[in-house]
Amino acid sequence: MAYPGQTDEDFAEMQKLSNEYEPEITGPFVSERQPSSNIATEYASADPVYQAKTSALPQKYSHYRMVRGDGKCGWRAIGFGYFEALIHFGDSNKFLEEETRLRSMSNVLNAAGFATYTYEDFADEAFELLRKLGTAMHSGNASEVLQETFNDDMLQNYVITYLRILTAAWMKAHQPEYAPWLLGQTIDHYCDVSVMPTNSEIENVSLSALKDVLLSPSGIALEILYLDRTEGREVNMHRFDPVSFHGGFTIGTIRLLYRPGHYDILYKMEDLPPPPPPPEQATIPTYLQFGSSTHNEHVFDIAGMDFMTQIPGMSCINPHQAWMSPSYGNGASDFFATTAPAQQCAQPIAAPAPTPTPAPQPQQIQPQSMYAVPATPTYYVAPPNELSQELAIRTVSHAPLANASLQQHVAGPFRPSQYQLDVRACAHMPFQTTIFKNSHYNTAHFMNEHFQPEEWRPDDEYVTITSSSKPTTRHKNCV
């Protein structure tokens, strides 16, 4: 059907523009990890072969990253996977080792015809990323730094360009290994057409060269899973191990899902970083309350008489009452039930009103009041509604006595006597046995470490009797 005013040349031009049209690609350069079941959902209405293979994919591969399909997805996926494998290895020294190795590749680049000034800016950006990731390993945010770098248009283009230069230089330095795979092309022509252009996609030959120069010397394996229409219910996988490096030891594996013209990154559960440890449960402080004593010894009110309470049976408190003090009576059971911030649990016994007497007489104390102890007021503090992180300790202190008269009243029945024992009368032992006298425990014995010889005193040996008529001296044994 022809439209008026349009020639065949116009239609040919429109057809050419339609064939060359490419929709604008949006989205991140490298996305966050997503469940691989999303791929099966994407192919739910596609060919049955794709449906079967994508349905089996989540059974082995749990997550994947979408890489922007702008012609550089293969280069970007391998570059991102390289740095991510170093992060998952967990050794920050590995980043310094890789920087040293890549810096030593400058002689290969120069031998391939690349001047230093043509690649040093791109190389410095890759080295800077290695240093930043090595530093971020200590703070635990290396994955975030890598994600941010590869989603920066300029930074990720610098890193990808450096990978292109490395690949081209390696292929030129090892032409016998790659020339047989290039039908009708030279290595130099292939690098100029398929490797170095900015928007050129990675091909099998250039992918193999990039694996040889970047991944294998680092001990990183590469797996490529091809999602195509070949027979089978699972994707076809090709694995490249670093056999000739590190004795085949691998520090990680990069897994790529290839769909015609596009690469994404796949992950197994073992590739994912371990989940962070669960947060520590907040410890609830224990609310404690201590009493000052089990009972109140009123004898302490008398100066110098506190030693009397250390003698068994000399306490003025009933032993049963001491163990069943009012301080630990009903108030203890009401400790957690009370809601008031502080309440007085007991009231002191009021002092009796003094009665004037004509003459001072000793106070008569009834025998039944021997164990009567007035209840000392005790204050209990209710636990706070919101406990702080520190241990809350409340000390229950006895309230001081109201006045001096009450203190006299509760002082107890003990009164110091006016008669005191003269301790000087017992300064010397009144007698000494023969056994002790001959023992080395005697200070007068020569084997005692505090040996002190006895002194003879005539006054101790003789008694002088004086009479009005004549003094007489007589030995003590004769008295």
Sequence-ordered SSE layout with sheet pairings:
Blueprint: H1 8-20, E1 34-35, H2 37-42, H3 48-56, E2 63-65, H4 73-89, H5 93-103, H6 106-111, H7 116-139, H8 142-150, H9 153-173, H10 175-178, H11 187-195, H12 204-215, E3 220-226, E4 236-240, E5 252-259, E6 262-267, E7 288-291, H13 319-323, H14 330-333, E8 342-344, E9 379-381, E10 393-396, H15 404-409, H16 434-437, H17 458-461, E11 462-465, E12 472-475
Parallel strand pairs: 3-5, 7-10
Antiparallel strand pairs: 1-2, 2-6, 3-4, 5-6, 8-9, 11-12
Helix pairs in contact: 4-8, 5-7, 7-8, 7-9, 9-11, 9-12
**Are there runs of 5+ residues with pLDDT below 50, and where?**
290-295, 319-352, 356-376, 387-404
What Rg, in angstroms, do the CA atoms define? 51 Å
Under CATH, the homologous superfamily of the largest domain reads Peptidase C65 Otubain, subdomain 2
Number of domains: 3
Write the H/E string, N to C: HEHHEHHHHHHHHHEEEEEHHEEEHHHEE
Q: What is the third-level CATH name, the topology of the largest domain?
A: 3 helical TM bundles of succinate and fumarate reductases
Largest sheet: 6 strands, mixed
Strand coverage percent: 5-15%
Strand order of the biggest β-sheet:
1-2-6-5-3-4
What is the mean pLDDT? 75
Separate helix tally: 17
Distance between the termini: 168 Å
Q: Which structural class do you get from the secondary structure elements?
A: alpha+beta
Number of strands: 12
Using the coordinates above, name the CATH class of the largest domain.
Answer: Mainly Alpha
Overall body shape: elongated
Gross CATH architecture of the largest domain? Up-down Bundle
Protein name: ubiquitinyl hydrolase 1
Organism: Elasticomyces elasticus
Enzyme class: hydrolase
Catalytic activity: Thiol-dependent hydrolysis of ester, thioester, amide, peptide and isopeptide bonds formed by the C-terminal Gly of ubiquitin (a 76-residue protein attached to proteins as an intracellular targeting signal)
